[in-house]
Specification:
alpha/beta, 6-stranded parallel sheet, globular
Length: 215
């Protein structure tokens, strides 16, 4: 029986990945840097360190990802993202249902801590998650399972007692590498391979049906 559900954020709770990729392309165009689309797609589901590793193959203007993203954020300072508009409409009903079932809820996102805080605040999700873990805490991003191992330890649970909800290749692999039951939210706009997930759902509302007899 499962005791906790651990959510990814981008692509699961908020539909942010297409906009983030669009912004990355816009900024690179501004810099005059050409990164092949097949390389940019690899960024989806990763963290800033991974993004910069890819970009730095084509651009040497900044010494590290912190310097790059400081200028990236400055470029978009007058166009902040309204994450409330990107909130998955099925997210809050599912979170309330899971809480009603007595499950613990946690967030394990590759996003930076400041972004996670902004998203949770704007979308009024803060009260649902404890703990909230950023991939910036770790040397390696997903698909390394360390972020999920850490969440399970903080919850005081065994990995096999936890469910992961993800969308990207990296996230699904991280959940499976951690030995957790992994549900993938279907995503067809990016060339993700979601076959490794234990279950594929069309919407977050379908998670209720998947877990109804497992909690």
């Amino acid at each position: 029986m499962f005791k906790a559900v651990i959510f990814d954020m981008d692509g699961v709770l908020i539909d942010s990945e297409p906009l983030q990729l669009k912004r990355q392309k816009e900024y690179l165009d501004y810099l005059g840097v050409a990164v092949p689309d097949q390389e940019l797609i690899k960024m989806v589901g990763g963290n800033k360190k991974m993004y910069f590793d890819i970009i730095s193959k084509y651009y040497s203007g900044e010494p590290n990802y912190r310097a790059y993203y400081q200028k990236f954020q400055q470029y978009f300072k007058d166009r902040p993202i309204n994450y409330r508009k990107l909130l998955n409409p099925d997210a809050i009903p599912l979170l309330k249902w899971l809480q009603k079932q007595g499950l613990k809820l946690a967030l394990a996102s590759s996003g930076a801590p400041e972004k996670i805080k902004t998203v949770l605040t704007q979308c009024q999700l803060t009260q649902f998650f404890d703990p909230v873990i950023s991939g910036n805490m770790f040397k390696q991003s997903k698909p390394n399972p360390e972020i999920y191992n850490t969440v399970a330890a903080k919850l005081g649970l065994k990995n096999k007692q936890c469910v992961v909800i993800e969308d990207s290749d990296y996230g699904i692999a991280a959940g499976k590498n951690a030995g957790m039951f992994t549900i993938a939210l279907k995503e067809e706009r990016f060339p993700f391979s979601q076959a490794a997930a234990d279950y594929l759902v069309d919407s977050l509302s379908d998670v209720k049906h998947v877990l109804a007899d497992k909690i």
